[in-house]
Amino acid sequence: MTLAALAGARTFGDRKTLLDELKEIITAIFSDDFADDKKKKYVILFLEGDFGGHTRSKKMIMEDLQRSMNTKLKWLDCKVSVVDSSTYNKRIFQIV
């Protein structure tokens, strides 16, 4: 849905001032560099909080979400990760 929303936002061109904050993201996603299949693409869902329950732990929920996202984003050549502040890969991004 995010990609669809960005594609739709791109069609407004310069007619909407709200798009200024999205312009950089839209330009990057729809650039030839993004289509370069030699570069890895990451879809990261960053979750925080204590949302585990009695029947399923936080880790189990995060693994299920990641598996589901992988299935739904099969069409996009990317690596999907569902992470929190203790499990994210510091080589990919940093929390500031």
Distance between the termini: 27 Å
Number of helices: 4
Number of strands: 2
Radius of gyration: 16 Å
- Biggest β-sheet description: 2 strands, parallel
Q: Could you tell me the strand content as a percent range?
A: 5-15%
- Pattern of helices and strands: HHHEHE
Mean pLDDT: 80
Secondary structure: helix percent: 25-40%
For the biggest β-sheet, the strand order reads: 1-2
What overall form do the CA principal axes indicate?
Answer: elongated
Unreliably modeled segments: none
Supply the helix-strand structural class.
Answer: alpha+beta
Describe how the helices and strands are arranged.
Elements: H1 2-10, H2 23-29, H3 32-35, E1 42-46, H4 58-72, E2 79-83
Parallel strand pairs: 1-2
